[in-house]
Design goal:
alpha+beta; Aminopeptidase
């Protein structure tokens, strides 16, 4: 008997699971680059940011499940290209995470493909995926789905700690 790998739209009642998965993603990304939670992650409080994306008409937030158990999530949103492109929309995959034990069984692929099909249904023909330099696993994952690099963001910090501590702290109100 095989396993069932599915993706479904996240709901408000999934918030605890989404926060857990997001914090796992955050820990993984910080190990690659300390600026990630300050520039590429979600605004704190994360709970509010996730709920806003669930309710946002231009965003899609999916949970990836194995046999009904959530082991990953993907977040994408519709963005507008520059004005001279006539309000052409591009679907940007901003975040994707799959628990390590579920990697390699198709969770990421079903989430990516479901998200892209959802945006295709809204008329999107262009797709971006945001990947940190040096994150070979994510790069390979998206390349396997037909993506190729079109931009790399370079970063420099004059701070002695390389930008690891910007000074802002946050305490959850939850």
């Amino acid at each position: 008997m095989g396993i069932s790998v599915t993706a479904r739209l996240a709901r408000a009642e999934d918030l605890d699971v989404l926060v857990h998965l997001y914090r796992r993603l955050e820990a993984e990304m910080v190990a690659i680059h300390p600026m990630w939670p300050r520039a590429d992650g979600l605004e704190e409080p994360v709970e509010r940011s996730l709920l806003a994306r669930i309710d946002d008409s231009v965003s899609r937030l999916y949970l990836g499940e194995v046999d009904g158990y959530p082991l990953g999530f993907i977040y994408g949103r519709s963005e507008t290209l520059l004005a001279h492109e006539g309000n052409t929309r591009i679907a940007a995959i901003r975040l994707v995470f799959v628990e390590e034990e579920a990697r390699g069984v198709g969770v990421g692929e079903i989430m990516r493909d479901t998200l892209m099909d959802d945006f295709r249904g809204l008329g999107h023909e262009l797709f971006d995926a945001h990947v940190l330099p040096g994150h070979r696993l994510a790069k390979n994952f998206f390349e396997a789905g037909g993506f190729s690099a079109r931009s790399i963001v370079m970063h420099h910090s004059d701070r002695p700690d390389g930008g690891r501590r910007i000074g802002a702290t946050f305490r959850s109100t939850r």
